[in-house]
């Protein structure tokens, strides 16, 4: 995989691409397979780096993983789950946030778990205090060591009653994966209810779990003694679909995203329409396009947990907003530090200012603190080519969109990060008529 793309911008993206399963569901469903006494089969699995990382981590714990990239199936046989040495797992430190979710299943299977320093995108502090508190309350001991965290459970995890300080996706998944085989009933208040979490609940129910979800964000789990394997088709990646939709808008293009589904994207579709983008729901996907002319307009919006506007939809859309008439205000309420990617957009000519205040809506938990979490975008501004380095997964895809929209040749470095969550994005760009060349870092330095 190339490290650098030299993008000749200014050409509208036009054509059809396909998205497969959601990165942020598939990795969790793979971990759930650890809980079964028989093998599991997951379908619609995309060929992305995160799937590889989680396969390697499960492999280290004795799970036999077989991935067929073309068919998009992954089989997971957890018959021989074993403890993995701290040194082996430490080799994976910093690659992913998934190891924290393996704790509950490993405590059930083996009575202990070790997790290395976590990775994931640098978009805020990303603490794991909620996760550790859940595991402690369920009876695990947690010991921080030099290289990571060692957890032990001398007996079966115990059901408990917990209220999350914030509806964290990961902490909700932690609780689900830990409570399904715990003794007694567990109740989680202020839970996250993202579609990816609902699909994880569907998987766990297929495995034999008893879980109910109340309308007021309360999840109730009755622990069972045994679970078996599952067969499941992953829901579509609504983040990837929205990213291509925003790319269509920013470049004045017309992109059909096969596999995209309306239900999980309703909030995105409403904002897309308000900005002036057009879409059509098809039988097997969604077509997104720019209606032509100077027709996009600014909006005021904020990110939120589901059913709000996803934080991961924000960065690609901000690039499109640089091409909209008037002011847009985007208030980021999920992560405290998710506007770092706008530095590169400013370098490319965008007018974006970031503020510490909660602008445009309700006060959020970052309000009185020192985080630049509101952005004001003034458009439209033509974007000019630049030499940029991608900062994180979603910010990185936004840089790519900006380069595709800008006049001239941009150099986008560090694009391997995008392989973490966007399947075959180079091939998809070609299918959409993008003009670019792939280089390795050394070649790009020589060419500079
Ligand atoms: C998941 O991260 C996703 N990652 C993120 O996608 C996504 O942005 C996020 O959910 C929100 O939808 C995966 O699924 C692998 P959180 P997660 O726990 O679970 C705070 C992408 O690009 N918090 O809901 O880590 C936290 O700091 C990625 O695909 C605590 O304070 O997110 C954040 O401000 C990026 N303590 C907020 O909660 C904790 O123990 C929401 O985080 C846990 C979280």
How would you describe this structure to a colleague?
By secondary structure, this protein is of the alpha+beta class. It folds into 2 domains: 4-19 and 236-447, UDP-n-acetylglucosamine1-carboxyvinyl-transferase, Chain (Alpha-beta prism), CATH 3.65.10; 23-233, Enolpyruvate transferase domain (UDP-n-acetylglucosamine1-carboxyvinyl-transferase, Chain). Helix content is 30%, strand content 23%. It has helices at 23-32, 49-60, 86-90, 103-110, 129-137, 169-179, 195-207, 238-250, 266-275, 311-321, 342-347, 393-405, 425-431, 441-447; strands at residues 4-8, 14-18, 40-43, 64-68, 73-77, 112-116, 141-144, 148-152, 161-163, 185-189, 210-213, 219-222, 231-233, 254-258, 278-282, 285-289, 300-302, 326-331, 351-355, 374-379, 387-389, 409-413, 435-439. It has a 4-stranded mixed beta sheet with strand order 21-22-1-23. A 4-stranded mixed beta sheet has the order 2-14-16-15. Strands 4-5-3-13 form a 4-stranded mixed beta sheet, with helices on one face. Strand 9, helix 6 (169-179) and strand 10 form a beta-alpha-beta unit. The radius of gyration is 22 Å and the shape is globular. Ligand EPZ binds at residues 23-24, 97, 121, 124-131, 166, 168-171, 192, 310-312, 334-335, 393-394, 421.
Label this structure with key terms:
four-stranded mixed sheet, alpha+beta, 2 domains, UDP-n-acetylglucosamine1-carboxyvinyl-transferase, Chain, 14 helices, 448 residues, single chain
């Amino acid at each position: 995989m190339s490290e650098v793309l030299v993008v000749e911008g200014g050409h509208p993206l036009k054509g059809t691409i396909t998205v497969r399963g959601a990165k942020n569901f598939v990795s969790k469903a793979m971990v759930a397979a650890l809980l079964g006494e028989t093998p599991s089969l997951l379908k619609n699995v995309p060929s992305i780096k995160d799937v590889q990382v989680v396969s390697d981590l499960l492999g280290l714990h004795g799970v036999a993983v077989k991935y067929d990239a073309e068919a998009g199936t992954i089989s997971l046989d957890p018959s021989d789950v074993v403890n993995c040495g701290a040194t082996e797992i430490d080799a994976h430190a910093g690659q992913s946030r998934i190891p924290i979710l393996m704790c509950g299943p490993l405590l059930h299977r083996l009575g202990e778990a070790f997790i290395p320093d976590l990775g994931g995108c640098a978009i805020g502090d990303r603490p794991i205090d909620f996760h550790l508190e859940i595991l402690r309350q369920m009876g695990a001991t947690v010991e921080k060591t030099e290289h990571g965290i060692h957890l032990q459970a001398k007996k079966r995890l115990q059901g408990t009653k917990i209220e999350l300080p914030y509806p964290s996706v990961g902490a909700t998944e932690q609780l689900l994966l830990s409570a399904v085989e715990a003794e007694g009933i567990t109740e989680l208040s202020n839970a996250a209810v993202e579609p990816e979490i609902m699909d994880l609940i569907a998987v766990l129910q297929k495995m034999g779990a008893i879980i109910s979800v109340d309308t007021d964000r309360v999840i109730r789990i009755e622990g069972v003694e045994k679970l078996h394997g599952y067969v499941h088709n992953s829901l579509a990646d609504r983040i990837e679909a929205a990213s291509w939709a925003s790319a269509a808008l920013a470049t004045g293009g017309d992109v059909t995203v096969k596999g995209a589904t309306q239900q999980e994207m309703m909030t995105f579709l409403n904002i897309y329409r308000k900005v002036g983008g057009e879409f059509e729901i098809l039988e097997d996907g969604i077509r997104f396009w720019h209606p032509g002319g100077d027709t996009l307009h600014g909006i005021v919006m904020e990110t939120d947990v589901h059913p709000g506007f996803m934080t991961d939809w924000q960065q690609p859309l901000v690039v499109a907003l640089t091409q909209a008439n008037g002011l847009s205000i985007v208030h980021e309420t999920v992560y405290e530090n998710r506007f770092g990617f706008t530095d590169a957009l400013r370098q490319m000519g965008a007018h974006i200012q970031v503020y510490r205040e909660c602008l445009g809506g309700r006060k959020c938990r970052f309000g009185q603190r020192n985080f630049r979490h509101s952005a004001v975008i003034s458009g439209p501004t033509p974007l000019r080519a630049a030499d940029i380095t991608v900062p994180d997964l979603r910010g990185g895809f936004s840089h790519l969109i900006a380069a595709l929209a800008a006049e001239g040749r941009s150099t986008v470095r560090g694009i391997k990060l995008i392989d973490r969550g966007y399947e075959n994005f180079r091939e998809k760009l070609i299918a959409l008529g993008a003009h670019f060349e792939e280089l390795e870092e050394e070649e790009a330095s020589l060419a500079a």
